[in-house]
Write the structure tokens for this entry.
Amino acid sequence: MKTHINFLSAVLLACMFIPLDSRANEGGIPARSAAEAKTGREAPFGYSSNAAPDRVITIVAGKTRSIHVKRLETIRIVDGPRSVTWTFDTLGLLPISLANILPNATNVTIYVEESPMYAN
């Protein structure tokens, strides 16, 4: 019995020094490449997409204050020289600042409405 306990202790001790994932970083969390799309709780506002957009929205500086999109809609947003194609696969229907998906963007609020696909 004592041999089994010693063996189990040795195995547990060895497991502490073996990385669980070859991509593990110092915090023990697997590192992600920038190319990996975030989904679920990691992407509360949706994600960048290569898909053809359903429509294109051009932000007019000083005039555009908000835009309205539907959940699961893919939109190309153009803000001056910058643009992004974004799929609004959101966790909820809370307003989003454009700066959350396009850094240094104009002060525009994005209102996400429920998709008609979910209507009863």
